[in-house]
Design brief:
mainly alpha; 16 helices; 84% helix; 0% strand
Length: 360
Amino acid sequence: MDQYPTSLRYLIRLLLVFAIIATLIITRQLLVPLFFSILFAYLLYPTAEKMERKGIPRIITNFILIIGSLAFVLGAVYLLTLLVVTVTDDLPAIKERLDTNITRFRWALGRTFGVTAEQLDSIVESIRGSGEYVAQFFTGTANTLLTIGLIPVYTFLLLFYRDKFRTFVSMLVGNDHEDAAQDIIDQAAEVVPKYLKGLFIVFLILCGLNTLGFYLFNIKYALLLGIIAAIFNLIPYLGTIIGYGIVFLFVLATQSPALSLAVVIQFFIVQFIENNILTPNITGSYVEINPLVTILSLIAGGMIWGLPGMFMIIPYLAMFKIVCENIPELQPVGYLLGTRGTERYSITITSVKKIFGWDK
């Protein structure tokens, strides 16, 4: 390869990257549930190990964990469905309120900015077109329910054959790199479950904070909107903006501008708590990926696999970082992905104390 010009070598690597991206997009229906299953297998792995140490056969352990997880997920989906049903029961009133607010917005925009009725009608039609696009998206998602149903099967088999996969990796890398490969597997098996559990704890806390705030502001459907905002918060950095953006638009369209302003105020409060208290103390210490790489990865994951890609990209990026840190040739990449090297610029409790002289 060295005998070829540098430009040609980089062109070949660039084409290889594009080929990988194209493959990921084409095989999305196959790989998305598989990649979700790998994360679920990592999440259940520590519990499976403990149960097997107590003498419970692996196949029984896997059945217990998979069935228990399914029961929990289906229960959560059922409760969420009940909340959605309460909204659908109020659809006539919501539609009436929406039409009234649109009329008021038209009048306010026309009076303040001189927007004509024709321009406003064009904007409304664009919004309706976007609504149809969203409906098509969810219809397409519903068509993949059968594929999603394979996730429990994949998870069961990944847990059952985990020793076989470990042996396969050892055979693949050879004796010279076996210790490094096993170390990477052990680190991933420790970091990923802790990160996912921490993410779930943050999700539950944010469900409570969001719902409490919406309830205190007297916003309708506080519990449902609080859960929706918390679900999107599973996407780092961008998720809180997306979730609260949806809530803001819903409240603005169906209730009042004053309440939508309250949603904005709560957004800044929750964002501060999540970024400075919850995430750093619950999940931040496990992955330690710098924000720039995180945001770029989220955008890339969204471009390739949509919302599932945005939800999954960070755990896999953490695994990739572990691989880079354990392979000498890739350690510069691991350093670039991580947060090391910027400690003196970070805003921490210690740095704030130093600024105000409280550390003396």
